Each structure stands twice: as C-alpha cells, then as structure tokens.
TrEMBL record:
Domain Rv3660c-like CheY-like N-terminal span(s) in chain numbering: 7-115
Protein's organism: Nonomuraea harbinensis
Pfam families to which the protein is assigned, alphabetical: CBP_BcsQ (PF06564), Rv3660c_N (PF26563)
Name of the protein this chain belongs to: Septum site-determining protein Ssd
InterPro entries named among the record's database cross-references: Cellulose_synthase_operon_BcsQ (IPR017746), ParA/MinD_ATPase (IPR050625), Rv3660c (IPR022521), Rv3660c_N (IPR059050)
Length: 346
C-alpha cells in the first residue's frame, strides 16, 4: 500500500508531521527536495507540502491531483494562499491550530477502500414490537447480499443483539471496550476487533453492569462504520439517550415499528415525537393488529415503508440460537430485500 508523501526541508516541521502521522497510525515517505518527490507524487494517497518548499514544488509543475495540503506555521503570511494555489493544494493547514484535522487526513489516507455507507436506524413504537428482530433480519439479509454490514446495538437494556443472533459466546470487542474512545476510530481496526460472521459485524454489549454509551463513542463508531461498511444498522432504545440521539442525527432513514392497535399507535406517536427532534426521514413498519395498517400509518402522519407479517415460528427459532431463513422466496426475506432496495442509495 502506498504511503502519504511529505515534502519539506524544515526539520522542526518534519518532526511535527512525523508525530501527527504516528498519531493516525500512518507511516510516511519524506522528500527533502521536489525532485525526490516526483516518483511518489501521483501514487501517494495524500501529499503534504511544507510552505518552505511550496514554490520549488510549483516550479517543477507536477501533474494536478487531489488530496494535496499545504502545511504552514505562518498562516498570516500574505504569500501563503499564493503558494497554496501555485502548488495545486486544496487547503492550507496551519500548525498547531489544525493538528487534529491533519491527524484525520493522515488516517483517511490509510483507509484501504473507503466507503460511504448508509446509516439505518430502527426503533420500536412500543416494547416487544419487534424492532431488534427487524434490525437483525435486515442486517442478515444485507450481508447475505454481499453488502458489508455493521449491526450496532444501541439499547443497553435490550439483552444483546449478539444473543439474538445466537453469538453471545463469540470473541470480539463489545461496547465496554469502546466507550472510552473519543475522536477517530479506524474502520479497519473496528472491523478487525468486532465479532464478524461473513460480511456482517456486530457491536453489542457485555453482560453485567450497564453503562450508557457516550455520545462521542457513538459518533466515532458511526463515522468509522460509514467509512468501512456499505450499511450501518442501529437498533435504538425507545427511551432516547444521548447516544441514540447522535445516531438519529446521522441516520439516512429511520424505521419505526408500529403495532396496529390503539395502544401501539399511541405509544408509537410518543416515540415518534422524540425521534422527530433529531431526524426527519422516519417511516413506519406496520405489524398486524386490530386496526387497518394503512390507517395506523396515516394517523402518525408518516409514510408506511412496509407491512411486517407475524411469524409464529421466528421467536422459537431465535431462542434455539438458530438464524431465521431469509431467502428471497421467504416472506421475511422478501420483505427485507424490498426494504433495503427502497431505502438504500443505488
């Protein structure tokens, strides 16, 4: 894998850049003259040009490319922006003020195959509506279709999505291992740490003491998930905490699972009122009940994404530690396929 390229003769600046790159987990190639940089210019995932050599680099007329940064300790120098334009850089990064940004730029450059995954949140309109089961089934169906999928358990009191999938004994990181993290998490490191089953990775909770997820930890996980996965599915608690609000704010779409009876609709309306404070695209998945399904969705004033039929054998299947059959010819598999097709960007 090609490494980021740094072009500078300033030893103090180079020391800072080596330290910043190390904080991002990146190794760099260093050129002390523009001629030395020529073989690496087009291949490096990121080029960082010190202000001390910007004019010399521009004089060599290197081919235009993206992801070139000009790094300077003197942002007020009137020649800074002229040098930025002449060298073909997209931005000026002053140090030490924007050191954090530079860490993220180096880290981005080391992601092997950056993606731009969609974030799909699922929340129950009332307890037992089936939101966790729907989250798990959507994740299984998506990963079965070779979409790299991250299933995030955001409900500390939900019993664990890993247990729902019959994988509670599988080794790998849980939330307790990540809650102290702030700032960026490498998507590659996240995938390597979590329990994985084919193209599906699962982030759930340890058993025992319950601790809330910090908002910053949820943000870091979802950012890493979007970079490293095609789809991130978040199973939310009905009582929204800071982490759930963070996930809703980053959701492409949110599915609200509604039971078509009077209490189910009234409860879903309360949940909807909370969720709508953090996200705009909320759609109903209607479970059978005494009320007409379309009328239940209309009473909430949100579109119906799907009607989810009852599956009497599903609970027994999951309690045996078995995964449900989600082939395209099964009712549940076909419903999940349709939902994913309708909700995900092409």
């Amino acid at each position: 894998m090609n490494r980021p390229l740094v072009i500078t003769e300033d030893r103090d600046l180079l020391d800072d850049l080596v330290r910043v790159a190390a904080a991002a987990g990146a190794q760099i190639d260093v050129a002390h003259a523009p001629a030395h940089a020529r073989p690496f210019w087009s291949l490096a995932p990121l080029v960082v040009v010190g202000a001390d050599l910007a004019d010399a680099v521009a004089a060599c007329a290197p081919p235009a490319r993206d992801r070139v940064l000009l790094v300077t300790r003197a942002p007020d120098d009137p020649d800074t922006w002229r040098r930025c334009v002449s060298v073909g850089a997209q931005a000026v990064v002053p140090l030490p003020d924007e050191e954090r940004r530079l860490v993220e730029e180096f880290a981005d450059a080391m992601e092997p195959h950056p993606r731009s995954g969609a974030v799909l949140c699922v929340i129950g309109g009332r307890g037992g509506a089936g939101a966790s089961v729907l989250s798990a089934c959507l994740a299984l169906r998506a990963s079965g279709d070779r979409l790299r999928t991250l299933l995030v358990d955001a409900d500390p009191l939900g019993g664990g999505l890993d247990a729902l999938l019959g994988q509670e004994e599988t080794q790998g990181a849980r939330w307790a291992d990540l809650v102290a993290r702030q700032g960026r998490i490498s998507s590659t490191a996240l995938q390597g740490a979590l329990p994985c089953f084919g193209d599906l990775a699962v982030l759930s909770f340890h058993r025992g003491e319950v601790r809330p997820i910090p908002r910053e930890a949820m943000r870091s996980v979802l950012e890493a998930g979007r970079r490293g996965f095609d789809l991130v599915i978040v199973d939310l608690p009905r009582h929204l905490d800071a982490a759930a609000a963070e996930a809703l704010g980053r959701a492409t779409t949110t599915l609200l699972v509604v039971t078509a009876d009077v209490r189910g609709v009234l409860s879903a309306a309360q949940v909807l009122r909370q969720a709508a404070e953090h996200t705009s695209d909320i759609r109903a998945v209607i479970r059978p009940g005494v009320l007409d399904a379309d009328a239940a969705a209309a009473s909430l004033s949100i579109p119906a994404a799907a009607h989810l039929p009852d599956h009497p054998r599903l609970t027994a299947t999951l309690n045996r530690g078995e995964l449900p059959r989600l082939g395209p010819r099964t009712t549940l598999g076909a419903l999940c396929t349709t939902l994913l097709h309708d909700l995900l960007p092409a």
